[in-house]
Specification:
single chain, 67% helix, disordered N terminus, globular, 2 strands, mainly alpha
Length: 461
């Protein structure tokens, strides 16, 4: 291989960081010693206060979003409710997919994630919030769904408010219950020491979740068995449930268009988004109590490979959907791509006949191509080699671009269906303020869950 050729994932003659944890904080060591002999793989929950500055920032962002939301209701309710809807879809999918990731690790018996799975699991603290936000969206339904004010008689059986909200709330409620069962099974073995030696809310919570304790060995075995039971059920519920949510919350916004593959496309976007957010948080937590030495180059490499591979599969789903619609050329199918990529992408010769001079002038095309670059082009080309995946800051940057790209993607899924001629409808003080509020609330919930609950347990020694 010449020096100018890219170095793909081949073994390199460089020192490797052993994929074994170093000793956690002295407090954790002392706690583990006081706890006595423990079975292999046991973790002990050690709650640490959430950083007051960071938690305060999340609170400020949430307040900004709340104020913006109510101000927007008075000045532009259409924009307000649509921005609310976009962010509900984005953060809801990430949260549910975070728990599903841990379920996938359980099914395949993956041991490499270590404490990384606790970070992914922590995203699931937002799952019940998604259920509550779906209830709130009832009050803005006429501003979100165009078929309410302009009903389609031939789709009335499917596109009606009663059917949509009853089915979707049942689906989200079921996913919430399954997520709680799975997370409780996962966390119970870590909480006994906290129940005996903690204080305040954390102690009371741990006492409740560890009632009827049967010993470390038996609890660890029981936890593994319960997780193996719930994991496939949760994965199937996510696949079917979020496909239904995608059909109702996104595809129905363009009620005369349909695609059987669309549900899988949106649900897989949630998985890739969750991997990207997990990667960012993993890098940020590498010096957190109990995490020193846990965020190894091998684990970063595996996370990088997931972003790389999952982005390829996301692009495959996108292209598979596009290709079938393109060669079918049916009006009820092509409108979706026409509104996002323009008419040039529906032509037989769009790729080689000077399309760039024409396509960039059509609404939403530039935004859609930018989103495509963030979600697939950049992660694919910049994570081809081994070293980029092992560099914490570089990998986190690519993950951040991917996560932002998916926020753009959710906007591209929603706004062109409602305002196809207004390319920049997703930008504005209302849209930005509500997005900031969701961001603050989401990470505020994550911080409280992982510190107070806690979800970041440390290995017992």
């Amino acid at each position: 291989m010449s020096a100018s050729q890219p170095q793909y994932d081949q073994p390199e003659a460089e020192p490797q960081v052993e994929d074994a944890p170093q000793a956690p904080y002295p407090r954790a060591v002392a706690a583990a010693e006081a706890h006595g002999p423990t079975p292999s793989g046991l973790e002990i929950a050690m709650p640490t206060p959430a950083p007051p500055g960071l938690l305060g920032l999340c609170g400020i962002l949430f307040v900004i979003g709340l104020v913006t939301f109510f101000a927007g209701l008075g000045s532009d309710p259409d924009t307000t409710w649509r921005a609310f809807h976009v962010n509900t879809v984005y953060f809801g999918a990430i949260a549910q997919a975070g728990v599903v990731l841990v379920a996938i690790f359980t099914i395949v018996g993956a041991r490499w994630p270590g404490p990384v799975k606790r970070i992914a699991e922590g995203l699931g603290a937002w799952v019940p919030v998604t259920f509550l936000l779906a209830i709130v969206s009832w009050f803005g339904r006429s501003h979100i769904y165009p078929w309410i004010n302009e009903p389609l008689p031939w789709k009335a059986t499917w596109l009606n408010v009663g059917r949509l909200y009853s089915w979707d709330l049942i689906t989200l409620g079921l996913l919430t219950v399954l997520s709680v069962f799975f997370m409780r099974a996962s966390l119970r073995p870590t909480l006994r020491h906290l129940a005996e030696n903690g204080e305040g809310f954390a102690k009371r919570m741990a006492e409740s979740w560890t009632s009827g304790w049967r010993g470390d060995e038996e609890e660890k075995a029981a936890s593994d068995a319960r997780m193996r039971f719930w994991a496939p059920i949760l994965c199937l519920a996510y696949a079917f449930g979020w496909s239904l949510i995608a059909f109702d919350w996104v595809m129905s916004l363009e009620p005369t268009w349909f695609s059987n593959l669309f549900g899988a496309f949106v649900a897989w976007g949630g998985i890739l988004s969750a991997v990207s957010i997990t990667t960012i948080l993993t890098v940020l937590h590498r010096n957190h109590a109990g995490m020193q030495g846990e965020v190894t180059t091998d684990r970063l490499h595996d996370l990088g490979k997931m972003i790389f591979a999952f982005s390829i599969f996301w692009m495959y789903l996108f292209f598979a959907q596009y290709l079938v619609i393109w060669y079918g050329n049916l009006p009820e199918e092509t409108q979706y791509f026409r509104d996002r990529l323009g008419t040039e992408f529906l032509q037989a010769t769009w790729f080689w006949q000077g399309w760039s001079d024409r396509v960039l002038g059509e609404p939403w095309t530039v935004v859609t191509l930018f989103t495509w670059a963030c979600v697939w082009v950049i992660p694919f080309w910049f994570l081809l080699g081994q070293r980029p995946k092992k560099s914490p800051n570089f990998l986190a940057t690519i993950a951040l671009i991917s996560a932002f790209g998916f926020w753009m993607e959710r906007n591209v899924l929603v706004w062109p269906s409602l305002v196809p001629e207004d390319t920049w409808a997703f930008l504005g003080w209302i849209q930005g303020g509500i997005a900031i509020g969701f961001l603050g609330a989401f990470f505020g919930v994550f911080l409280l869950y992982t510190r107070v609950f806690p979800g970041l347990a440390v290995p017992a020694k």
